[in-house]
Specification:
six-stranded mixed β-sheet, about 290 residues, 3 helices, about 10% helix, 20 strands, Immunoglobulin-like, mainly beta, five-stranded mixed β-sheet, binds copper (II) ion
Length: about 290
Amino acid sequence: MKKGLLIFCCTLLYFASHSANTSRSLFIHGGNLIAVNDSLIPYVSFNEFDSFSQNNPVITLNLGDSLSLWVYNRDTIEHQFAIKNIDKPSISIPRLDSIHIDYFFSQAGNYIYYDPLNYPTNTFLGLAGMIAVKNHNYSSFYWNIKEHDKLWNTRIRAGAKVDWDTYYPKYFTINGKSNPMINEDSQARITGKVGDTLILYIANTGQSIHSIHFHGYHVTVLFSSKYTTHVGRSKDTCPVFPLESLVLQIIPDKPGEYPVHDHNLVAASANNTYPNGMFTTILITE
Ligand SMILES: [Cu+2]
């Protein structure tokens, strides 16, 4: 009982000393994702600035912060906004209109914001990013993992139907990038020193299961939006289901450079060219 009271008081103190109001804006824009082989794939994304980019920004909050969010729809069709596993209804954003929403997260973890309209079509087209709610100050890395198929994206963007049973994606990205560009993304490239605590936020915003295999190190599951019983497990491969989000902890026990990749080997390629897919390395120094 006393221990419970202590935790309650500490939590209150934490909120009182750390709480902040974070204001952010997201701009919905359509464009083309430039694949690793320069192929152009129709894409729609949330953007930090009022122009198209092929990645959705990560919103980072400290536990206890409230989020004041504006979403501007610069696209030519209606979109919606929602956060997965947050008990608020999705909100419609008519074309060329905007919305404002306040959110509060009572649990640290990793949350996916997305466009649920006609799911999975708008999410698949690119409209999904992550919100990392932190209760630590460790080095953190962020992976929005996703697969693409030019024909599917083209059809969906044109308002045509697709047959998901015959879906066979060709491109695989982390934060909109494939190998070797992933290594130049400081949000994605896991680097650190032996004994560091490193935290990796992963969200699968595609339609395939992506099984991430870590060579050289085990990871501990700190958070899973889909399988809460997986928390605490130590392993080297983490399947991530569509719209699942994870938080993983890595404490490297040795220096080295080791591959990290999607264990479905087609996903380590781009249009059948290996290793231009969901493939990077973790770099640990003494
Ligand atoms: Cu492997």
